[in-house]
């Protein structure tokens, strides 16, 4: 489908800017986002020099060795990856992105998936769940910057690494400058750049960085990297171009210099590995996690920093969340901030989503791509989200100082008097603000240690740090009208409201804390809540507060030659209850603060509540509205507004697990020797499915041969990808199943016997025709990480068929998804279905099936059958609430596997051979919250087994705004 006919309208200002840029490019060519001059002591050195032809008036993006400069202002990017293609519900894109924003992120990183948009050479679809123009509009509306990553290769543990399956039939090595591949990728980038370019910040949009390729480390071609950038410039890209290099390995090119070099080279760091099954013991086996500087005149860029893990060993994603949980985040993220001096951060992933349909690259992942991220697959917040919120709000509050720092000399670093601990510091040369990392000298240490830090100027600070923890402590830190001399508590955020400063600091429960503030004269300090000892040293002009981190201590400080200050001193858990909106409004309570603004004398909140509870807004406003409704509020001694908010209404779901509410039909007529396959495609020259335009999902083969009487069996080879099987019938009799070949079979030396299976044929008289039926489950395509084609272009489906002992030839026909590359269902796209009979005849769709013998469902399925189950249900979810539902199955069965479809969308695959997953997300948007839903299951049985039908469960329920 051509994008000119399908994409949404461009915003007028962007369209004009884009046309001007393209015209300029045609005449002049476009330069990349050029480095700004090196920072110098004079403030004027911060000004941006612009980015060449096509720069929009008043909007520029450039950089120097310290940071990105957006409209001339130093900007720290703190973001996370989001895969729109793993959330097939555009209405919920905003929900996830608002949760990114609420966590303190100001950026989202976006892969664009070539294969998701292109079912066939020359055909592109950017409508519906593929409307990335809408996606970028939402990013802008939410108030985030965007790093766009259109590949052409993206990896992302998705089928083919994002390359379209039809590319396997194109001459030339992918990820190289070979002519065939070049023509193909130029077609893709032309289509996607047409959408991206008008959304650049230089045109008033959110895009501030453009990433070419992905982890391009092996079998590299520098001319290809250069060509990608030249094409981007020519098509109007004028923000800085980046690349994310893998692994920090010495053997990989950095793309920092020479042909193919990018403006801002970045690095991917996954220090915690993917060993989720060992979450309790693993600690940094894949390096120290410190992002290296690759280019002297560009900022340090942590392009993909580990924020979860793929579940390689079926431990379940909660184990992956534990592997990369708050302890890991505290130690590695804070260490990286101080040791690297990075100011560009993107974490992988913020929200993982779902490998619906056949999105998964089967060697690494199954249906869920939860990734152990801070936001679950069901869009629920976790304790990792809380830790991200603490750190991200700190980065946002301190960004003025953090975007220009130098590593302090060892002699200038506050030294601990306990050798078990170590420190490192960065200092802003303009403001003098100092950031000191405190952690254990031995990274995996688990002891709880104390020390005194000597600042070398008579100042000493008692500190304490637990094992596998780290702190960033501030000193000589100006904020608002205040100056923080030093503190053993960490800063979450500060703001200015109602003529006073408010600052929130925190520490571990039960741990002593000390905070010292500078004043010109003795101020008045009042402890409004909690306990704190207050003293003032007139000779140094220092107000000292000593306290224990318990609950929330509130101290009001006035006078002393500075504006009033409300100092909040809490625990980690208490601080995590706070939110700060983009407008600076500080709020305590609610499960999610989507927005908070003060207009006149009214504070207006958009917030989610999962249960009844209080909310506190630190503002001088007199009135409060939440989600558009006025709320009765009262003022506190802290000068804040408090109110009580209701929780959501309860949800009552229909029971689905009773067989009586299901209808069942047999779904493998292809095994009958008399089945009409006259319209199937003849597999005369090759059995490979991709050669016949069948790229995804189940494949049927039917072969005929004339028996000689000498056949000793049937020997087959099939390649399915990991977790795939194939099943075989002869003259309607089930012969058994075998595991299909996998990616490893493509590694050199290539395995010539992949996915072998030998089957005993029924007796047949000489001259008798025998019909063989084979069902192959194509689980997806290999990635192309090593860029060698052997791996990516490994075939799928049957690859060899022999009749040992016989000279008879088998004539084959093949059938996959209805229409092949010419999609029968454009709405759901190429990755939704395969070639099962029920899929080809619409049994998965919401309307009643036009074929099949549908009867009351039974509890058992026989070996060698495909059985379809269908039911309908109405969830009748309460309005004004965000209720996340899932299908819950029992322990994954060994005898069969299940494909499940919600209103025609393939939302998962279940079974012991597929993965450990039991709960399958029903994405809002695909699920009709107050209407009729159709649920269909395709049960593919290898053995006789009992089918346990699923139930509906609530994964989250919130009153929302």
The best one-word shape is: elongated
Helix content: 10-25%
Q: Please give the largest β-sheet.
A: 8 strands, parallel, barrel
Overall radius of gyration: 30 Å
Overall structural class, as computed from helix and strand content, comes to alpha+beta
What distance lies between the first and last C-alpha atoms, to the nearest angstrom?
36 Å
The chain-level mean pLDDT equals 93
Query: Reading side by side through the largest sheet, how are the strands ordered?
Result: 4-5-6-7-8-9-10-11
- pLDDT under 50 segments (min length 5)? 1-56
Strand percentage, roughly?
25-35%
DSSP strand count: 56
Number of helices: 12
Description:
With 961 residues, the chain is α+β, with helices and mostly antiparallel strands. The protein is built from 12 helices and 56 strands. Mean pLDDT is 93; it is low at 1-56.
């Amino acid at each position: 489908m051509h994008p000119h006919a399908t994409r949404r309208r461009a915003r007028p200002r962007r369209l004009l800017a884009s046309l001007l840029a393209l015209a300029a490019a045609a005449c002049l060519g476009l330069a990349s986002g050029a480095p700004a001059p090196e920072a110098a002591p004079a403030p004027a050195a911060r000004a941006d020099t612009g980015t060449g032809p096509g720069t929009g008036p008043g909007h520029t993006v450039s950089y120097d060795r310290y940071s990105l400069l957006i409209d001339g202002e130093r900007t720290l990017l703190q973001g996370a990856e989001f895969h729109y293609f793993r959330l097939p519900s555009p209405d919920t894109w905003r929900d996830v992105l608002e949760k990114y924003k609420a966590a303190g992120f100001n950026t989202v990183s976006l892969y664009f998936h070539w294969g998701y948009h292109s079912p066939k050479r020359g055909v592109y679809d950017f409508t519906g769940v593929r409307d990335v123009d809408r996606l970028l509009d939402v990013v802008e509306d939410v108030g985030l910057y965007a790093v766009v990553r259109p590949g052409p290769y993206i990896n992302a543990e998705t089928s083919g690494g994002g390359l379209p399956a039809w590319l396997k039939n194109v001459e030339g090595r992918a990820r190289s400058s070979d002519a065939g591949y070049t023509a193909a990728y130029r077609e893709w980038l032309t289509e996607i750049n047409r959408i991206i370019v008008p959304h650049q910040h230089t045109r008033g949009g959110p895009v501030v960085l453009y990433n070419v390729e992905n982890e391009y480390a092996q079998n590299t071609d520098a001319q290809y990297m250069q060509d990608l950038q030249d094409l981007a410039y020519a098509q109007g890209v004028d923000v800085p171009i980046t690349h994310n290099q893998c692994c920090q390995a010495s053997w990989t090119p950095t793309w920092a210099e020479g042909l193919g070099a990018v403006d801002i080279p970045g690095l991917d760091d996954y220090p915690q590995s993917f060993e989720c099954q060992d979450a309790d013991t693993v600690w940094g086996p894949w390096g120290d996690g410190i992002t290296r500087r690759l280019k002297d005149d560009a900022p340090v860029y942590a392009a993909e920093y580990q924020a979860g893990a793929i579940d390689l060993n079926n431990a379940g994603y909660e184990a992956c969340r534990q592997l990369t949980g708050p302890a890991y985040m505290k130690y590695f993220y804070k260490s990286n901030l101080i040791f690297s001096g990075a100011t560009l951060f993107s974490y992988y992933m913020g929200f993982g989503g779902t490998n619906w349909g056949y999105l998964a690259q089967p060697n690494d992942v199954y249906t869920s791509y939860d990734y152990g991220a801070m936001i679950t697959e069901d869009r629920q917040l976790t304790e990792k989200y809380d830790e991200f919120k603490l750190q991200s709000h700190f980065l946002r509050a301190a960004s003025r100082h953090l975007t220009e720092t130098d590593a302090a000399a060892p002699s200038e670093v506050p030294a601990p008097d306990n050798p078990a601990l170590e420190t490192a510091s960065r200092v802003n040369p303009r403001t003098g603000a100092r950031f000191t990392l405190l952690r254990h000298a031995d990274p995996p240490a688990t002891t709880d240690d104390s020390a005194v830090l000597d600042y070398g100027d008579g100042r000493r600070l008692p500190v304490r740090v637990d094992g596998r923890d780290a702190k960033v402590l501030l000193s000589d830190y100006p904020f608002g009208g205040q100056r923080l001399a030093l503190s053993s508590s960490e800063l979450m955020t500060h703001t200015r409201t109602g003529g006073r400063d408010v600052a929130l600091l925190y520490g571990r429960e039960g741990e002593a804390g000390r905070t010292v503030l500078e004043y010109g004269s003795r101020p008045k300090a009042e402890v409004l809540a909690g306990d704190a000892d207050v003293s003032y040293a007139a000779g140094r002009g220092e107000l000292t507060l000593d306290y224990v981190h318990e609950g929330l201590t509130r101290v009001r400080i006035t006078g002393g030659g500075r504006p009033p200050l409300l100092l909040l001193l809490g625990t980690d858990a208490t601080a995590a209850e706070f939110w700060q909106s983009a407008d600076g409004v500080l709020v305590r309570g609610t499960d999610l603060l989507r927005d908070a603004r003060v207009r006149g004398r009214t504070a207006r909140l958009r917030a989610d509540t999962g249960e009844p509870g209080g909310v506190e807004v630190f503002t001088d406003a007199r009135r409060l509205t939440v989600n558009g409704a006025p709320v009765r509020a009262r003022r506190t001694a802290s000068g804040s507004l408090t109110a009580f908010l209701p929780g959501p209404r309860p949800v009552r779901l229909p029971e689905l697990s009773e067989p009586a509410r299901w209808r069942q039909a047999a779904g493998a007529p292809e095994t009958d020797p008399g089945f009409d396959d006259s319209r199937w495609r003849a597999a005369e020259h090759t059995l490979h499915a991709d050669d016949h335009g069948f790229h995804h999902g189940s494949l049927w083969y039917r072969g005929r041969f004339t028996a000689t009487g000498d056949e000793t069996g049937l020997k087959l080879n099939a390649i399915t990808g990991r977790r795939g099987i194939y099943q075989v019938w002869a003259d309607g009799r089930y012969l058994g199943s075998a595991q299909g070949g996998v990616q490893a079979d493509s590694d050199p030396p290539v395995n010539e016997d992949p996915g072998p299976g030998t089957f005993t044929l029924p007796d047949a008289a000489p001259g008798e025709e025998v019909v063989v039926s084979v069902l192959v489950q194509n689980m997806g395509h290999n990635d192309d990480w090593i860029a060698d084609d052997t791996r990516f272009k490994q075939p799928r489906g049957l690859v060899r068929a022999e009749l040992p002992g016989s000279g008879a030839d088998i004539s084959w026909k093949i059938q996959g998804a209805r229409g092949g590359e010419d999609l029968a269902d454009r709405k759901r796209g190429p990755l939704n279905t395969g070639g099962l009979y029920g899929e080809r005849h619409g049994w998965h769709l919401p309307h009643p099936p036009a074929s099949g013998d549908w009867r009351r469902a039974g509890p058992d399925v026989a070996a060698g059958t495909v059985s379809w189950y269908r039911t309908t249900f109405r969830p009748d979810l309460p309005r004004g609430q965000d209720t996340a539902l899932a299908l819950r199955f029992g322990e994954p069965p060994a005898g069969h596997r299940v494909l499940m479809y919600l209103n025609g969308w393939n939302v998962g695959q279940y079974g012991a051979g597929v993965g450990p997953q039991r709960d399958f997300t029903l994405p809002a948007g695909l699920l009709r919250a107050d209407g009729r839903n159709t649920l269909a299951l395709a049960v593919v049985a290898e053995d006789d087994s009992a089918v346990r039908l699923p139930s509906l469960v609530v994964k989250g329920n919130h009153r929302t705004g």
